[in-house]
Design brief:
Layout (H helix, E strand, L loop, with lengths): L2 H45 L4 H20 L9 E2 L11 E9 L3 E10 H4 L1 E10 L9 H17 L13 E7 L3 E5 L2 E4 L16 H11 L4 E7 L1 H12 L3 E7 L3 E8 L15 E5 L14 H9 L7 H6 L1 H19 L18 H8 L7 H11 L11 H32 L15 E6 L1 H5 L1 H15 L1 H4 L2 E5 L3 H12 L10
Parallel strand pairs: 2-5, 5-8, 9-12, 12-13
Antiparallel strand pairs: 1-11, 2-3, 3-4, 6-7, 9-10, 10-11
Length: 505
């Protein structure tokens, strides 16, 4: 063999060895990354675990906090606010009623013609109005004048299908989804603004009085007959169609629960005697916390970096505002420690709240063989003109879906435990003894998280059944209550109408 041939063979062998070494190193590194990703996911799963025993501890803790919150003001993280709603809609209500739903950058006005048990809702018309950003940080008169002006314009468009008896005022139900200390069915003082609002001179003021003055400045003859939050509106709207509705829950961007309490269970310090023998309690359950809640370092990071550290712990584990952000924190750690998206971390992955829960839901529900939706969503989220996320492998996409599953199901199972805690408090968590009939109990749930995140809602329902057992769960119904807060406010205006005192609905 010639020198050239020998040299060529040696060089070729050396190159082959080098390539083989690179392949081995790549496989070892890839194997190491996979092992690290698997370890992080296993740790997440263990820390988020919600076995039946733990869920029952959470339910018991919820019940204990409910008792404490009712027993004394400030005695619990649950505010257990008296709503002054002691008459829920029955279906007998008739007449024309309005609703105003204020809880974010848009507000909704609604009118509804009620026809009693035979005709129920004869007709309804809604309208949504956007609030100019400058009015969200200005003076109270400017904000409430804008709202009242839109309300007056809406009333002026009232068609012939809507009618009110001569000599009567129009009546309004006001859904005000900000922290309020209620003082009657139609009055309440503002505790603080949230959701980007910062209105001067209104904290401690009666929000119904503010709205009423604005209505009067519009020369509009209308009376605010009920002040409620969206959770109580949801309960009332569902109760109108089903007398067995006892609990109302919001599971959307935020979360809350309200329920019907027996009058004798409300301590005398409240100074109230409900006319009907029952009262709706606004729990503000988002602020619930317990040592039994399964939390992780990711939750701690989210809480520390939030606008309200140490508050709304339950909400931060179960609501739509935060589930996507928990997932982002998990993926960020996987990207840093296990190179989930390659050798570099996508810069946008470090942006708080860039991963919203609807995107998480879309990825979680991806049933395609190659998880194409997951890959597309990741590219849309973390891509850009300069830096972008590379095409992800099927293994990577499976890791993302697994993280979605752990986080969403923990939230759903904890929400279910909260519901069971309420049922325990009011004695609806077990089948009747001695062969008696078990009363039917309906839990009405509103909110985009519950409505659109099917894996979440299915897990919640199955967990309630698991916790209660076959016999007791047979009498518990969990149903979607669409758009309950607006119609519920109008119905509460009807059930607390000033004209009921003269024997008329």
């Amino acid at each position: 063999m010639g020198k050239v041939a020998v040299t060529t063979a040696v060089v070729g062998a050396a190159m082959a060895c080098a390539v083989a070494a690179l392949v081995v190193r790549h496989r070892m590194r890839s194997s190491g990354r996979c092992a690290r990703a698997a370890a992080l996911l296993k740790e997440l799963e263990e820390r988020c675990a919600t076995p039946l025993g733990k869920l029952r501890q959470v339910a018991d803790a919820m019940m204990v906090e409910m008792h404490a919150g009712l027993a004394s003001e400030g005695g619990s993280k649950l505010k257990m606010l008296i709503s002054y709603v002691d008459k829920l809609p029955t279906g007998d209500e008739t007449g024309l009623f309005y609703a105003l739903d204020l809880g974010g950058t848009n507000f909704r006005v609604l009118r509804v013609q009620l026809g009693g048990k035979e005709h129920r809702v004869v007709k309804k018309e809604p309208k949504e109005v956007s609030i100019p950003p400058h009015l969200m940080v200005g003076g109270s008169d400017e904000l409430f004048d804008f709202i009242a002006s839109a309300l007056a314009e809406f009333v002026a468009s009232e068609g012939e299908d809507f009618h009110i008896p001569v000599g009567r005022q129009r009546e309004l139900g006001f859904t005000f989804s900000f922290p309020v200390r209620q003082t009657s069915i139609a009055s309440g003082t503002l505790i603080k603004w949230t959701k980007g609002f910062n209105i001067e001179g209104t904290v401690g003021e009666d929000v119904v009085a503010e709205l009423t003055r604005a209505i009067e400045r519009q020369c509009l003859d209308m009376r605010v007959s009920a002040l409620v939050n969206d959770t109580i509106g949801t309960l009332a709207g569902a109760r109108y169609y089903d007398n067995d509705v006892i609990v109302g829950v919001i599971l959307g961007t935020g979360t809350n629960a309200a329920y019907v309490e027996r009058a004798h269970a409300i301590p005398k310090w409240h100074g109230l005697l409900p006319k009907s023998g029952e009262m709706v309690i606004n729990m503000e359950w988002g602020n619930f916390r317990s040592s039994h809640l399964p939390t992780t370092d990711y939750d701690q990071t989210l809480d520390t970096e939030s606008l309200n550290p140490g508050e709304q712990i339950f909400e931060k584990l179960i609501s739509g505002m935060y589930l996507g952000e928990i997932l982002r924190n998990v993926l960020l750690r996987l990207a840093n420690e296990a190179a989930l998206f390659g050798d570099s971390v996508p810069p946008k992955l470090e942006t708080p709240f860039i991963l919203r829960t609807p995107v998480m839901s879309a990825m979680h529900h991806d049933n395609s063989p190659d998880l194409k939706v997951v890959g597309t969503k990741l590219k849309e989220l973390f891509g850009g003109m300069i830096t972008f996320i590379p095409n992800t492998s099927l293994k990577t996409r499976k890791v993302v879906v697994q993280a979605c599953d752990i986080i969403a199901k923990r939230g759903a199972r904890l929400a279910a435990a909260g519901i069971v805690g309420i049922l325990k408090k009011i004695g609806r968590d077990s089948a009747a003894k001695d062969g008696g009939d078990t009363p039917r109990t309906v839990v009405a749930i509103d909110g985009g998280l519950y409505e659109h995140y099917n894996i979440f809602s299915e897990c919640l329902r199955s967990t309630v059944k698991e916790m209660l057992g076959e016999e007791a769960s047979a009498s518990v119904v969990i149903k979607l209550a669409n758009d309950g807060s607006s119609i519920g406010a109008a119905l509460l205006a009807a059930s607390h109408s000033q004209y009921l005192d003269v024997g008329e609905s």
